[in-house]
Protein backbone atom coordinates (compact mmCIF):
# COMPACT_ATOMS: atom_id res chain seq x y z
CA UNK A 1 0.00 0.00 0.00
CA UNK A 2 3.01 2.23 0.32
CA UNK A 3 3.18 2.20 -3.47
CA UNK A 4 -0.35 3.59 -3.72
CA UNK A 5 0.50 6.48 -1.38
CA UNK A 6 3.68 7.23 -3.34
CA UNK A 7 1.72 7.22 -6.60
CA UNK A 8 -0.81 9.59 -5.06
CA UNK A 9 2.04 11.93 -4.10
CA UNK A 10 3.64 11.83 -7.56
CA UNK A 11 0.25 12.36 -9.23
CA UNK A 12 -0.36 15.36 -6.98
CA UNK A 13 3.06 16.80 -7.87
CA UNK A 14 2.22 16.40 -11.55
CA UNK A 15 -1.19 18.05 -11.21
CA UNK A 16 0.25 20.92 -9.15
CA UNK A 17 2.94 21.46 -11.78
CA UNK A 18 0.34 21.59 -14.58
CA UNK A 19 -2.36 23.57 -12.78
CA UNK A 20 -1.86 26.49 -15.19
CA UNK A 21 -2.76 24.12 -18.03
CA UNK A 22 -5.53 22.08 -16.42
CA UNK A 23 -7.13 24.89 -14.44
CA UNK A 24 -7.39 22.65 -11.36
CA UNK A 25 -6.69 24.63 -8.20
CA UNK A 26 -3.59 23.67 -6.20
CA UNK A 27 -5.58 23.72 -2.98
CA UNK A 28 -8.02 21.12 -4.30
CA UNK A 29 -5.14 18.86 -5.33
CA UNK A 30 -3.39 19.08 -1.97
CA UNK A 31 -6.60 18.41 -0.05
CA UNK A 32 -7.29 15.37 -2.26
CA UNK A 33 -3.79 14.06 -1.52
CA UNK A 34 -4.26 14.54 2.22
CA UNK A 35 -7.71 12.97 2.42
CA UNK A 36 -7.15 9.95 0.18
CA UNK A 37 -3.65 9.36 1.53
CA UNK A 38 -4.83 9.09 5.13
CA UNK A 39 -7.80 6.91 4.12
CA UNK A 40 -5.42 4.46 2.42
CA UNK A 41 -3.07 4.63 5.41
CA UNK A 42 -5.73 3.82 7.98
CA UNK A 43 -7.23 0.96 5.92
CA UNK A 44 -3.89 -0.84 6.06
CA UNK A 45 -2.98 0.81 9.35
CA UNK A 46 -1.88 -2.32 11.18
CA UNK A 47 1.00 -2.95 8.74
CA UNK A 48 2.20 0.66 8.87
CA UNK A 49 1.92 0.90 12.66
CA UNK A 50 3.77 -2.35 13.33
CA UNK A 51 6.52 -1.29 10.94
CA UNK A 52 6.98 2.30 12.16
CA UNK A 53 5.63 2.45 15.75
CA UNK A 54 5.64 -1.03 17.32
CA UNK A 55 6.82 0.12 20.74
CA UNK A 56 4.44 3.05 20.99
CA UNK A 57 1.54 0.85 19.88
CA UNK A 58 2.30 -1.74 22.56
CA UNK A 59 2.36 0.98 25.18
CA UNK A 60 -0.93 2.33 23.82
CA UNK A 61 -2.58 -1.10 24.13
CA UNK A 62 -1.44 -1.33 27.76
CA UNK A 63 -2.10 -5.06 27.90
CA UNK A 64 -5.38 -4.96 25.94
CA UNK A 65 -5.89 -7.19 22.92
CA UNK A 66 -4.95 -5.70 19.55
CA UNK A 67 -7.80 -5.06 17.14
CA UNK A 68 -8.61 -3.00 14.08
CA UNK A 69 -10.42 -0.46 16.27
CA UNK A 70 -7.41 -0.12 18.52
CA UNK A 71 -5.14 0.46 15.52
CA UNK A 72 -7.45 3.19 14.20
CA UNK A 73 -7.61 4.83 17.61
CA UNK A 74 -3.82 4.75 17.89
CA UNK A 75 -3.38 6.27 14.42
CA UNK A 76 -5.84 9.03 15.22
CA UNK A 77 -4.55 9.88 18.69
CA UNK A 78 -0.82 9.32 18.28
CA UNK A 79 -0.07 9.94 14.59
CA UNK A 80 -2.73 11.86 12.69
CA UNK A 81 -3.37 14.60 15.26
CA UNK A 82 0.36 15.34 15.43
CA UNK A 83 0.38 16.38 11.78
CA UNK A 84 -2.91 18.21 12.13
CA UNK A 85 -1.40 20.25 14.94
CA UNK A 86 1.70 21.19 12.92
CA UNK A 87 -0.37 22.17 9.89
CA UNK A 88 -2.93 24.06 11.98
CA UNK A 89 -0.19 26.13 13.66
CA UNK A 90 0.94 27.46 10.28
CA UNK A 91 -2.59 27.92 8.94
CA UNK A 92 -3.62 29.81 12.07
CA UNK A 93 -0.64 32.13 11.66
CA UNK A 94 -1.55 32.75 8.02
CA UNK A 95 -5.15 33.40 9.06
CA UNK A 96 -4.02 35.97 11.63
CA UNK A 97 -1.64 37.83 9.30
CA UNK A 98 -4.08 37.83 6.39
CA UNK A 99 -6.80 39.17 8.68
CA UNK A 100 -4.43 41.92 9.82
CA UNK A 101 -3.81 42.90 6.19
CA UNK A 102 -7.55 42.94 5.48
CA UNK A 103 -8.21 45.27 8.42
CA UNK A 104 -5.37 47.58 7.36
CA UNK A 105 -6.44 47.52 3.72
CA UNK A 106 -10.10 48.15 4.52
CA UNK A 107 -9.20 51.20 6.59
CA UNK A 108 -6.96 52.73 3.95
CA UNK A 109 -3.72 52.13 5.84
CA UNK A 110 -1.88 51.30 2.61
CA UNK A 111 -2.70 54.72 1.14
CA UNK A 112 0.71 55.82 2.39
CA UNK A 113 2.36 53.48 -0.09
CA UNK A 114 0.42 55.02 -2.99
CA UNK A 115 1.51 58.45 -1.82
CA UNK A 116 5.12 57.35 -1.45
CA UNK A 117 5.39 55.92 -4.97
CA UNK A 118 3.57 58.83 -6.64
CA UNK A 119 5.77 59.58 -9.66
CA UNK A 120 6.00 59.02 -13.40
CA UNK A 121 9.70 58.23 -13.35
CA UNK A 122 10.31 54.57 -14.04
CA UNK A 123 13.26 54.03 -11.72
CA UNK A 124 11.67 55.73 -8.74
CA UNK A 125 8.34 53.94 -9.05
CA UNK A 126 9.93 50.54 -9.70
CA UNK A 127 12.29 50.74 -6.75
CA UNK A 128 9.87 52.33 -4.29
CA UNK A 129 7.05 49.89 -4.97
CA UNK A 130 9.33 46.85 -4.84
CA UNK A 131 11.10 48.15 -1.72
CA UNK A 132 7.73 48.57 -0.01
CA UNK A 133 6.81 45.05 -1.11
CA UNK A 134 10.12 43.63 0.15
CA UNK A 135 9.68 45.22 3.58
CA UNK A 136 6.00 44.36 4.00
CA UNK A 137 6.50 40.79 2.84
CA UNK A 138 9.22 40.26 5.43
CA UNK A 139 6.66 41.01 8.14
CA UNK A 140 3.42 39.77 6.60
CA UNK A 141 2.37 36.90 4.41
CA UNK A 142 4.06 37.22 1.00
CA UNK A 143 0.98 36.15 -1.01
CA UNK A 144 -1.32 38.76 0.49
CA UNK A 145 1.39 41.41 0.26
CA UNK A 146 1.82 40.53 -3.41
CA UNK A 147 -1.89 40.91 -4.11
CA UNK A 148 -2.14 44.26 -2.32
CA UNK A 149 0.85 45.68 -4.20
CA UNK A 150 -0.28 44.26 -7.55
CA UNK A 151 -3.68 45.90 -7.09
CA UNK A 152 -2.03 49.24 -6.26
CA UNK A 153 0.21 48.92 -9.33
CA UNK A 154 -2.66 47.81 -11.57
CA UNK A 155 -4.71 50.88 -10.66
CA UNK A 156 -2.03 53.41 -11.57
CA UNK A 157 -0.04 51.89 -14.48
CA UNK A 158 -2.23 51.88 -17.58
CA UNK A 159 0.08 50.07 -20.01
CA UNK A 160 -0.36 46.29 -19.71
CA UNK A 161 3.12 45.71 -21.14
CA UNK A 162 4.62 47.88 -18.40
CA UNK A 163 2.46 46.23 -15.72
CA UNK A 164 3.77 42.82 -16.72
CA UNK A 165 7.37 43.84 -16.02
CA UNK A 166 6.60 45.78 -12.83
CA UNK A 167 4.31 43.01 -11.60
CA UNK A 168 7.08 40.45 -12.09
CA UNK A 169 9.41 42.65 -10.03
CA UNK A 170 6.76 42.92 -7.30
CA UNK A 171 6.38 39.13 -7.13
CA UNK A 172 10.15 38.70 -6.87
CA UNK A 173 10.39 41.35 -4.14
CA UNK A 174 7.58 39.69 -2.17
CA UNK A 175 9.17 36.25 -2.40
CA UNK A 176 12.66 37.50 -1.51
CA UNK A 177 11.36 39.65 1.32
CA UNK A 178 9.35 36.77 2.73
CA UNK A 179 12.09 34.17 2.51
CA UNK A 180 14.61 35.85 4.83
CA UNK A 181 12.34 36.01 7.90
CA UNK A 182 10.62 33.18 9.72
CA UNK A 183 7.26 34.98 9.57
CA UNK A 184 7.24 36.05 5.92
CA UNK A 185 6.81 32.69 4.19
CA UNK A 186 5.14 29.36 5.07
CA UNK A 187 8.48 27.57 4.62
CA UNK A 188 10.15 29.77 7.23
CA UNK A 189 7.17 29.28 9.54
CA UNK A 190 7.44 25.51 9.13
CA UNK A 191 11.17 25.51 9.90
CA UNK A 192 10.61 27.78 12.89
CA UNK A 193 7.76 25.64 14.22
CA UNK A 194 9.93 22.51 13.90
CA UNK A 195 12.70 24.31 15.82
CA UNK A 196 15.02 23.78 12.85
CA UNK A 197 15.94 27.49 12.91
CA UNK A 198 15.83 30.47 15.22
CA UNK A 199 14.52 33.80 13.99
CA UNK A 200 17.70 35.87 14.43
CA UNK A 201 20.11 33.33 12.94
CA UNK A 202 17.81 32.61 10.00
CA UNK A 203 17.46 36.28 9.08
CA UNK A 204 21.13 37.11 9.61
CA UNK A 205 22.18 34.49 7.04
CA UNK A 206 19.43 34.95 4.45
CA UNK A 207 19.11 38.75 4.44
CA UNK A 208 22.00 39.46 2.03
CA UNK A 209 21.23 36.55 -0.35
CA UNK A 210 17.58 37.61 -0.48
CA UNK A 211 18.57 41.23 -1.05
CA UNK A 212 20.85 40.24 -3.95
CA UNK A 213 18.18 37.99 -5.46
CA UNK A 214 15.78 40.94 -5.44
CA UNK A 215 18.05 43.86 -6.41
CA UNK A 216 19.88 42.36 -9.41
CA UNK A 217 16.82 41.12 -11.36
CA UNK A 218 14.91 44.31 -10.50
CA UNK A 219 17.72 46.41 -11.97
CA UNK A 220 17.70 44.29 -15.13
CA UNK A 221 13.91 44.54 -15.38
CA UNK A 222 14.12 48.33 -15.02
CA UNK A 223 16.38 48.50 -18.09
CA UNK A 224 13.55 47.10 -20.22
CA UNK A 225 11.09 49.80 -19.18
CA UNK A 226 10.82 53.28 -20.75
CA UNK A 227 12.08 56.28 -18.80
CA UNK A 228 8.53 57.55 -18.32
CA UNK A 229 5.63 55.27 -17.47
CA UNK A 230 2.05 55.46 -18.67
CA UNK A 231 0.50 56.36 -15.33
CA UNK A 232 -2.86 57.76 -14.31
CA UNK A 233 -3.29 58.85 -10.71
CA UNK A 234 -6.95 58.55 -9.83
CA UNK A 235 -8.84 59.49 -6.72
CA UNK A 236 -7.30 57.86 -3.67
CA UNK A 237 -9.27 54.87 -2.37
CA UNK A 238 -10.90 54.55 1.05
CA UNK A 239 -12.56 57.94 1.27
CA UNK A 240 -16.08 59.04 2.08
CA UNK A 241 -18.26 56.09 3.03
CA UNK A 242 -15.32 53.68 3.04
CA UNK A 243 -13.65 55.10 6.12
CA UNK A 244 -13.71 58.14 8.32
CA UNK A 245 -10.30 57.55 9.78
CA UNK A 246 -7.95 60.50 9.63
CA UNK A 247 -4.31 60.29 8.76
CA UNK A 248 -2.93 59.72 12.28
CA UNK A 249 -5.51 57.02 13.01
CA UNK A 250 -4.57 55.09 9.88
CA UNK A 251 -0.89 55.49 10.71
CA UNK A 252 -1.47 54.20 14.24
CA UNK A 253 -3.35 51.16 12.94
CA UNK A 254 -0.54 50.48 10.47
CA UNK A 255 2.06 50.61 13.24
CA UNK A 256 -0.01 48.36 15.53
CA UNK A 257 -0.43 45.77 12.78
CA UNK A 258 3.07 45.74 11.34
CA UNK A 259 4.94 46.63 14.51
CA UNK A 260 3.05 44.02 16.48
CA UNK A 261 4.21 41.26 14.18
CA UNK A 262 7.83 42.32 14.76
CA UNK A 263 7.29 41.28 18.37
CA UNK A 264 6.11 37.74 17.50
CA UNK A 265 9.61 36.13 17.51
CA UNK A 266 10.27 37.71 20.90
CA UNK A 267 6.88 36.47 22.10
CA UNK A 268 7.79 32.93 21.12
CA UNK A 269 11.23 33.04 22.71
CA UNK A 270 9.80 34.37 26.00
CA UNK A 271 6.69 32.20 26.32
CA UNK A 272 7.63 29.16 24.19
CA UNK A 273 4.06 29.27 22.90
CA UNK A 274 3.32 28.84 19.17
CA UNK A 275 3.93 31.82 16.90
CA UNK A 276 0.32 31.90 15.76
CA UNK A 277 -0.78 32.78 19.31
CA UNK A 278 1.40 35.88 19.23
CA UNK A 279 -0.05 36.82 15.83
CA UNK A 280 -3.57 36.36 17.20
CA UNK A 281 -2.70 38.73 20.07
CA UNK A 282 -1.66 41.34 17.49
CA UNK A 283 -4.86 40.71 15.53
CA UNK A 284 -6.96 41.13 18.67
CA UNK A 285 -5.27 44.43 19.55
CA UNK A 286 -5.67 45.74 16.01
CA UNK A 287 -9.28 44.62 15.99
CA UNK A 288 -9.99 46.54 19.20
CA UNK A 289 -8.32 49.66 17.77
CA UNK A 290 -10.34 49.22 14.57
CA UNK A 291 -13.61 48.99 16.51
CA UNK A 292 -12.68 52.00 18.64
CA UNK A 293 -11.80 54.19 15.66
CA UNK A 294 -14.83 53.15 13.63
CA UNK A 295 -17.44 53.23 16.41
CA UNK A 296 -19.11 56.27 14.84
CA UNK A 297 -19.03 54.92 11.31
CA UNK A 298 -22.66 55.36 10.30
CA UNK A 299 -24.45 52.20 11.45
CA UNK A 300 -23.76 48.49 11.79
CA UNK A 301 -25.30 47.56 8.45
CA UNK A 302 -23.23 50.08 6.52
CA UNK A 303 -20.13 49.11 8.45
CA UNK A 304 -20.49 45.48 7.40
CA UNK A 305 -20.95 46.53 3.77
CA UNK A 306 -17.71 48.47 3.48
CA UNK A 307 -15.54 47.40 0.61
CA UNK A 308 -13.41 44.39 1.50
CA UNK A 309 -10.91 43.15 -1.13
CA UNK A 310 -12.49 39.85 -2.15
CA UNK A 311 -9.39 38.85 -4.08
CA UNK A 312 -7.53 38.78 -0.76
CA UNK A 313 -10.27 36.72 0.87
CA UNK A 314 -10.37 34.08 -1.84
CA UNK A 315 -6.62 33.80 -2.37
CA UNK A 316 -6.03 33.70 1.38
CA UNK A 317 -8.48 30.85 1.89
CA UNK A 318 -6.98 28.91 -1.00
CA UNK A 319 -3.47 29.42 0.38
CA UNK A 320 -4.48 28.17 3.82
CA UNK A 321 -6.22 25.10 2.41
CA UNK A 322 -3.22 24.41 0.17
CA UNK A 323 -0.77 24.56 3.07
CA UNK A 324 -3.01 22.34 5.21
CA UNK A 325 -3.40 19.78 2.43
CA UNK A 326 0.30 19.63 1.57
CA UNK A 327 1.41 19.19 5.17
CA UNK A 328 -1.15 16.46 5.89
CA UNK A 329 -0.36 14.76 2.58
CA UNK A 330 3.37 14.79 3.19
CA UNK A 331 2.70 13.63 6.73
CA UNK A 332 1.07 10.41 5.57
CA UNK A 333 3.95 9.79 3.15
CA UNK A 334 6.40 10.35 5.98
CA UNK A 335 4.61 7.73 8.08
CA UNK A 336 5.30 5.09 5.43
CA UNK A 337 9.06 5.55 5.90
CA UNK A 338 9.56 6.54 2.24
CA UNK A 339 11.11 9.93 3.02
CA UNK A 340 13.76 8.29 5.18
CA UNK A 341 14.68 5.97 2.32
CA UNK A 342 14.79 8.87 -0.12
CA UNK A 343 17.02 10.85 2.24
CA UNK A 344 19.40 7.89 2.55
CA UNK A 345 19.49 7.59 -1.26
CA UNK A 346 20.24 11.32 -1.65
CA UNK A 347 23.04 11.12 0.92
CA UNK A 348 24.55 8.13 -0.85
CA UNK A 349 24.26 9.36 -4.46
CA UNK A 350 24.47 13.17 -4.24
CA UNK A 351 25.99 13.78 -0.84
CA UNK A 352 26.14 17.57 -1.25
CA UNK A 353 23.44 19.74 0.26
CA UNK A 354 24.24 22.65 -2.10
CA UNK A 355 23.50 20.45 -5.10
CA UNK A 356 20.32 19.30 -3.35
CA UNK A 357 19.39 22.96 -2.86
CA UNK A 358 19.93 23.82 -6.54
CA UNK A 359 17.92 20.80 -7.67
CA UNK A 360 15.18 21.72 -5.20
CA UNK A 361 15.09 25.26 -6.56
CA UNK A 362 14.69 24.00 -10.12
CA UNK A 363 11.94 21.61 -9.04
CA UNK A 364 10.26 24.48 -7.19
CA UNK A 365 9.96 26.44 -10.42
CA UNK A 366 8.30 23.46 -12.08
CA UNK A 367 6.06 22.21 -9.28
CA UNK A 368 5.62 24.63 -6.38
CA UNK A 369 8.08 26.22 -3.98
CA UNK A 370 6.27 25.33 -0.74
CA UNK A 371 5.54 21.78 -1.89
CA UNK A 372 9.20 21.06 -2.66
CA UNK A 373 10.46 22.86 0.45
CA UNK A 374 8.07 20.92 2.69
CA UNK A 375 9.15 17.66 1.03
CA UNK A 376 12.80 18.47 1.71
CA UNK A 377 12.03 19.36 5.33
CA UNK A 378 10.05 16.16 5.93
CA UNK A 379 13.00 14.04 4.77
CA UNK A 380 15.28 14.98 7.67
CA UNK A 381 14.98 15.37 11.43
CA UNK A 382 16.67 18.12 13.40
CA UNK A 383 19.91 16.62 14.71
CA UNK A 384 22.17 17.61 17.57
CA UNK A 385 25.04 18.75 15.37
CA UNK A 386 26.10 19.23 11.78
CA UNK A 387 24.29 20.60 8.75
CA UNK A 388 20.95 19.26 9.98
CA UNK A 389 21.15 20.65 13.51
CA UNK A 390 19.15 23.66 14.64
CA UNK A 391 20.31 26.59 12.48
CA UNK A 392 22.16 24.10 10.30
CA UNK A 393 23.16 24.94 6.74
CA UNK A 394 20.67 22.54 5.15
CA UNK A 395 17.60 24.42 6.39
CA UNK A 396 18.87 27.78 5.16
CA UNK A 397 19.85 26.44 1.75
CA UNK A 398 16.46 24.78 1.26
CA UNK A 399 14.55 27.87 2.41
CA UNK A 400 16.45 30.18 0.06
CA UNK A 401 16.71 27.90 -2.97
CA UNK A 402 13.07 26.83 -3.03
CA UNK A 403 11.65 30.30 -2.40
CA UNK A 404 13.67 32.22 -4.99
CA UNK A 405 13.96 29.21 -7.30
CA UNK A 406 10.16 29.16 -7.47
CA UNK A 407 10.35 32.53 -9.27
CA UNK A 408 12.37 31.07 -12.16
CA UNK A 409 8.97 30.30 -13.68
CA UNK A 410 5.76 32.16 -12.96
CA UNK A 411 4.02 28.89 -12.05
CA UNK A 412 6.48 28.05 -9.27
CA UNK A 413 4.78 30.02 -6.51
CA UNK A 414 1.32 31.18 -5.52
CA UNK A 415 2.56 34.76 -5.89
CA UNK A 416 3.51 34.10 -9.51
CA UNK A 417 0.14 32.48 -10.18
CA UNK A 418 -1.58 35.54 -8.71
CA UNK A 419 0.35 37.71 -11.16
CA UNK A 420 -0.57 35.46 -14.08
CA UNK A 421 -4.22 35.65 -13.10
CA UNK A 422 -4.33 39.42 -12.57
CA UNK A 423 -2.30 40.51 -15.61
CA UNK A 424 -3.05 37.51 -17.87
CA UNK A 425 0.64 36.73 -18.31
CA UNK A 426 1.60 33.68 -20.36
CA UNK A 427 4.35 31.36 -19.21
CA UNK A 428 6.21 31.79 -22.52
CA UNK A 429 6.41 35.57 -22.01
CA UNK A 430 7.76 35.11 -18.49
CA UNK A 431 10.42 32.65 -19.63
CA UNK A 432 11.52 34.98 -22.41
CA UNK A 433 11.66 38.19 -20.39
CA UNK A 434 12.10 37.34 -16.69
CA UNK A 435 13.54 33.86 -16.09
CA UNK A 436 17.17 34.63 -16.99
CA UNK A 437 17.18 37.74 -14.81
CA UNK A 438 15.84 35.79 -11.83
CA UNK A 439 18.38 33.03 -12.46
CA UNK A 440 21.28 35.51 -12.27
CA UNK A 441 20.03 36.95 -8.98
CA UNK A 442 19.27 33.50 -7.57
CA UNK A 443 22.77 32.19 -8.26
CA UNK A 444 24.38 35.36 -6.94
CA UNK A 445 22.39 35.10 -3.72
CA UNK A 446 23.33 31.43 -3.41
CA UNK A 447 27.01 32.35 -3.81
CA UNK A 448 26.65 34.95 -1.04
CA UNK A 449 25.02 32.36 1.22
CA UNK A 450 27.87 29.92 0.48
CA UNK A 451 30.43 32.57 1.43
CA UNK A 452 28.58 33.33 4.66
CA UNK A 453 28.49 29.68 5.64
CA UNK A 454 32.18 29.32 4.76
CA UNK A 455 33.17 32.34 6.83
CA UNK A 456 31.01 31.94 9.91
CA UNK A 457 30.78 28.17 10.25
Automatic annotation (TrEMBL):
Residues 17-374 form the Citrate transporter-like domain. One of its GO terms (cellular component) is membrane. The chain crosses the membrane at residues 27-44, 83-105, 125-152, 164-183, 203-222, 252-270, 276-293, 314-333, 353-377, 397-419, 439-456. It is a multi-pass membrane protein. InterPro entries: Cit_transptr-like_dom, NhaD-like. Belongs to the NhaD Na(+)/H(+) (TC 2.A.62) antiporter family. This is Na+/H+ antiporter NhaD. It comes from Prevotella communis.
Amino acid sequence: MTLIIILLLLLSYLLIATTHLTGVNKAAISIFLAAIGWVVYIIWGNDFVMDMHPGAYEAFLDGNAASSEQVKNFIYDSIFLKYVGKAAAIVMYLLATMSIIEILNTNGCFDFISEWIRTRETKRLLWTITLATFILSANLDNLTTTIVMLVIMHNIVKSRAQRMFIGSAIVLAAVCGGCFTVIGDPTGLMLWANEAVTASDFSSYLAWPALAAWVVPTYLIGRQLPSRLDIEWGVAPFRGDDTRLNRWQRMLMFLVGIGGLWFVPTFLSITRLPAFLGALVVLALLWVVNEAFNRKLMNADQTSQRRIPRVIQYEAIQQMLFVMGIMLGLGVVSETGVFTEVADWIDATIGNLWVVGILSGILSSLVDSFTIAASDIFMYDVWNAGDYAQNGTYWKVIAYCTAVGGCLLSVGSVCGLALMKLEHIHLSWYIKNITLKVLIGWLLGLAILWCEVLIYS
